[in-house]
Specification:
The protein has 297 residues and is of the alpha/beta class. It contains six helices and 14 strands.
Length: 297
């Protein structure tokens, strides 16, 4: 018997899926939409809604949310880039928009977002409330698209990620490791407060085994720079700092890049800031890296 509530039908076509509901199927943006790049991605520069397909708890404070796309359609994102999620009426009755880097950028039929829920996070609390069948609006603007894009043109990349800063890195690992003929070497140095806070760990460990000749991951665990409570053979302890970068990263070279994404304190200590030129006295500057070698998401 048909329920009087929303009828959800997952129509599987190969590896694709689209959520069908009483109010309509997944749809493409309207004709004539404007896009942030010359080669359009799926989302235009105006908000367009798609359905939630599933929600998976990743860590105690983070979720992976899967959203539907039309059958046979992928995001086709420039890598690296983010999309803006609209959280309606969460700030004094007004909408707010926050950028998120999809972690499955070119999967057909759906895409995933990794979202950490913060106590004071307006958009993340909205995301935490989502359930299958809800519809969520996204758009992409030029500011969401980084100047450094795949293919990156480097022989090696050191990724320095903290917390959800793993999202743009994981997005980029798809083409870096799966594109035939790509020989880029990648070392991910990934910091979190505790072992239980490490997001996408199973996936990262699997990639490290599958691509052991080109991809390595080092986990750094600590609530502060001197925290050694999680000391083990599996983790570095404390924070990602000058000593660890000097010991673990690919050395400075025109053919390498150091990619940073994390909290403000991480940008400040490693590069001086998130947006300004590499600052004298910062860890990366002291190690001999230049502005051209440092990317920041």
């Amino acid at each position: 018997m048909r329920s009087t509530t929303l009828l959800l039908v997952l129509a599987m076509v190969g590896d694709t899926c689209c959520l069908a509901a009483e109010h309509g199927k997944c749809s493409a943006p309207p004709a004539g939409s404007k896009y942030a790049t010359d080669v359009p991605s799926f989302f235009p520069t105006e908000f367009h809604d798609v359905p939630v397909l599933s929600v998976r708890q990743e860590t105690q404070a983070s979720k992976v949310i899967t959203f539907g796309l039309p059958d046979g359609v992928a995001l086709d994102l420039p890598i690296s880039s983010a999309i803006l999620m609209n959280a309606p009426k969460v700030k004094a009755g007004k909408d707010v928009a926050r950028p998120y880097n999809p972690i499955s950028p070119n999967r057909v039929g759906s895409f995933d977002l990794l979202i950490k829920v913060y106590e004071a996070g307006l958009a993340s609390k909205y995301a935490d409330s989502l359930k299958p069948g809800d519809r969520v609006s996204f758009k992409q603007i030029k500011g969401n698209v980084k100047k450094f894009r795949y293919p990156f043109g480097k022989t090696s990349i050191t990724m320095l990620a903290g917390g959800t800063g793993i999202a743009p890195m994981y997005q980029a690992l798809h083409p870096l490791l799966d594109t035939p003929g790509d020989t880029t070497e990648v070392h991910l140095i990934y910091g979190n407060n505790s072992p239980e806070d490490i997001m996408l760990k199973a996936e990262l460990d699997d990639l490290a085994v599958k691509h052991s000749g080109r991809f390595k991951v080092t986990y750094v665990v600590g609530k502060d720079a001197s925290d050694t409570s999680a000391a083990s053979t599996s983790f570095e302890t404390g924070w990602i700092d000058q000593e660890k970068v000097g010991r673990l990263a690919f050395p400075p070279s025109p053919d390498t890049a150091v990619w940073v994404c994390g909290v403000d304190a991480m940008y400040n200590s490693l590069a001086g800031s998130r947006f300004k030129p590499l600052a004298a006295g910062s860890a990366l500057h002291a190690l001999g890296y230049t502005d051209e070698m440092v990317w920041r998401s």
